[in-house]
Amino acid sequence: MIALAELRHNPRRIIAVVLAIMISVGYLAASVTVVASESATMERGVIARVANTDVVVTVAGQHAAEQNSGLLQQIRQVEGVESADLSYLSHGRVSGSSEWVQQQSVPDNPALRWTGLAAGEWPQGPDEIALGTVTAEQLNLAVGDQITISDTGSSATLKVTGLTHEGNSLLSGLAQSSFVAPAFYTGASTIRTSLQTEILVIGVAPERLAEKIRAVAGVSGVETSAEFVQRKMSDQAGGVFVFQLLLLVFGAIALLVGGIMIVNTFLVLVAQRRRQIGLLRAIGASAAQVRRNLLVEALVIGAVGSIAGALLGVGVAALVALGIGEHLTVPIGQIALVAATGVVITVLAVLGPARRATRIPPLDALRPVADRSTERRSSRVRTAVAAVLVVGGLALNTVEGPYALLFAVGGQFVCAIGLLLATGAYLPLVLRALGSVVRGPVARLAVSNTLRNPGRAAATGAALVLAVGLVVTLQVGAASMKATANDNLDVRFPVDVTVSVFDGALPAHTEAAIAKVVGIAEAEPLKATRAALGAAHLRVLAHESVPDDRILADPYLATSSTTLTGTTGAVTLPIVQDFLAPADTLLVSPAVMERIDANAVVGTVWAKASPDADITELRAQLRAVVAPIPGVEVGGGLSAKASYHEFLDRILLVTTMLLAVAVLIALIGVGNTLSLSVLERTRESALLRALGLQGHDLRRMLAIEAVLLSLSGTVAGIGAGVLFGWAGTRAISAELNFRDTAFAMSVPQTATVAAVAIVAGVVASIMPGRRAARASPVAALAEE
């Protein structure tokens, strides 16, 4: 068969295509395998808790310890029950921070302990706790340290007696966990409310045992361990689903970029074999036969690349699982579907080139120079359609109202399609502009070569525009959202750090201790009291920045009264809304404070952080300072900013790594285009050599071509990324009711993208340049 013979005799032409398919399919295969392994690990984590349990009884409501104890005794007396233990669950805030930790009671029966100790011992008394290893690392705590847990105004200071394994998972540590003794809920601790109480039962015949427990104990929340696991997994599937969706979305992007490259490659291959196809048509081959040959080539290439990619993806997932200590789970059905998708994408990618090949009349195909009139007409139609899509997409971004964000996302998608279709119109302009700055005959020849086939340059550039544009969109979006959030958080939380107690005075040394924390620029004490404003009894702070003729109130505080009554007097002043006043708090001048409460004490310290402060270390030191103070609360905008920045940085890091695959595929496309272009221009290169062009000049010409192709696609991608990043930031800011939107971008990150494109372009030109320079001019000119 002609198709298979073509593949055997010209394997170099398809290497880059197979590589692009391998990377695209391998990325998806690795994604579904990692997600499957993650799901299995999470399921094992849920199962581990009830691995030796036959029946789980969920106690509804927040029963007193006596009620739970009575129910436990009833269940223990049921026929078939071998053991039954209470299991408590609650959560509390770590004093000195805004971080929350979940507490679980340690079962008395060692057979029910679903995790092991990494260090130390299990907690025994009501004032002891064991932290998960990831949680301890995040809180900067070790065995022997103390931690204060607060909840609904009460608190408990606990000693860390041990560290427990939290499981090996990519999502480990997202929920901070700890273990406490049952006495934590039943003893003298100030926190004794369990948000969820269960009784773990070991017995025989789980289904029948569950029925007996329902009948004897008179409770409805009775499940077998299998039913319990199924319910819990459905509750926790959301996080895995979002993770899976994220991976699959970027996998689809990688496939799209790979598809663009495959289309481009087959367009070049068809152009190279134009005379061969014309000769086949002239000797009797039908259009259907030519089309079938190309489709068979695509099918074989797609199958080879997809199978290799599936194996590559599973191998990468195995390395990830080995690195984090996770068990590898390979979803055979999903892997087969991913491989089939790669084959389908490859076959679909060749339909356009195959249609173009069969529409060429045999006599036209035998001409030495192709007729460009049809291509020019097609280009004009694409440009017109692209212009309509871009204008329509930009118009959708101007829609306001409750569905503005939805319209903005749809508009950006439509606009992006238009920009991709229009690459044939604007990319040659970018190439010409970049080419105008190069000097010398070799450079001018390289510029001429890139502009001579605008269709090929546009197809190669489209992949780079898409890949680079997505990366820059994320970078600009993240930087702009950070700047926007900072501006709005500065308005919403004008104070970096606040340390307060609800009632009473802070210890005298608090201000000095906070001022000594590394990263704190200055600290200021504020007097505090309680006063009545109408029917509300509110906290009042005194600050020197407040004029004597007004009261500042939290903008979310609704009140119609203007008379503030304290322990030693009352004032009637206008209420002015200002975010300087903390939530549910009023702010007055020191003079007004003296009138309403002459005996007010320092109950709050405000602090300003240094611009270059290490927020993580600063918060750790603050926790150490305020930990001994009962009922203390740490707030301010610094923690909100840090959490927001950390979230954006993680999202940006993950998505940039994922999109790097698409950039890699696009850069491979540049190398493939250049390599095929060298094969297509064998006689031209030989003629240049015969006319006196040196081998090193030929290599330099090809390197300049590669850099121009890479840089033009990168420049266009950066421009599109800036546009979409800014539009996305505006849409999200409007949805979040941010008052102002700030534009920002990381110049070093964007410059890195451009540098990678230039270096990759030079590297991509090495092999084709060497091949062209080593070819004998006489032998090349003799080729037909």
From TrEMBL:
One Pfam family here: FtsX
GO cellular component: plasma membrane
ABC3 transporter permease C-terminal domain residues: 249-362, 657-777
Domain MacB-like periplasmic core per the UniProt entry, residue ranges: 17-214
InterPro entries: ABC3_permease_C, MacB_PCD, Macrolide_Exporter_MacB
Main location: membrane
Magnesium recorded as keyword: no
Single Gene Ontology MF annotation: transmembrane transporter activity
Family: Belongs to the ABC-4 integral membrane protein family.
UniProt protein name: FtsX-like permease family protein
Organism, scientific name: Lentzea tibetensis
